[in-house]
Amino acid sequence: MLSRFLNIDKIKPQGDPVMWIIIVLLSVWGLVAVYSSTGALAYAKHGGSAEVYFFQQFAYLAIGFYVMLFIHSIHYKMFMKVAKLVLYVSYVLLVLTLFVGAEINDAQRWLKIPFIGITFQTSEVAKVALIMYIASELAKKQDDIKDFKKGFLPILIHVGVTCLLIAPNNLSTALVLAATCIVVMFIGRASVKHILMVGAPIIIALGLLALIVANTDDKYLKPFGRLLTWKHRIENYSNPVKDRDVTYQNDHAKIAIASGSWTGKGPGQSTERNFLPEAFSDFIYAIIVEEYGMAGGVIMLGLYLLFMFRALRIIFISPKAFGALVAVGLSFTLVMQALINMAVAVNLFPVTGLTLPLVSKGGTSIIITSFAFGMIMSVSRHVEKDEPETASQAA
Q: Cα-atom radius of gyration of the chain, to the nearest Å?
């Protein structure tokens, strides 16, 4: 019924075939990894039946793929027309999250849909909305983009508002989004002088805040719960032997990676999945390395980097600035999220709570991520279709 209503059954994947192959590989690999890593959770909640989570993940991935197909069939120029509206809707969602958001794992990042009871992370919606808006504004204001008041400041205001609304409960996402916005503005020919003029004071301010928090007694930070969490995460990362109870996840992630060696224990043979509380989400990369070895970990890293490379290729073949900017912006934030997740698993970065796109266990997050991938593939599809000669030269 749904496919008939949306006419999806007549839509076939088009655009860069390499990018489609990567999307499918990540999804299938993630499905197997989630099935393998949810054993302990299944015993706790479903009498050991991990098939529940396998079919749940499969269902969300199937819905996500349908969303991806439908979105990629829409010409990317349509997203330019609704970018500002979607951004304002995301503001409303972020404000609601601050006041009435659902709290999960000591973080208030989710909104619960009334009557249905399904939660979704509003920062994921805001992330896509802001990148759409910046790409749209940069495309429209190429003649004024070097002008601080006309071109740069309006974009900066929306970047600041969005990141400030996200930061209280999800600092890592806010920082990744801010970095993505800088990259998109740089590619969109914004003045480097303006970027540095605004970016340098923000970096200094964040550094001073970190210094103050680091030297403030915990009892004074308790009213600011997330500040205390950030402080402890950085302290535990810089001094892992201070509190073994707090570094429990990192320690078992290291054990998983070390025991995986080069070739791994084999699919479904992980033992650390029984000890890692977030083995199926934040630390799923550690389980993948344990089961598939460092070779598997490198291959997964390579898939994300190859996707980013193919997205960068769009810059050189896209006849429109908006298409190139939105594709690169969304690809950059998704790949950056993946790299940070992997860095956390191998203890190169403090714990952040960022999941591995299309691989980690998810629900509505998979659908929102699929929407983003659909937009990227929409650009790829129509660029290849509209400019076949240029595309073939760039390949």
A: 21
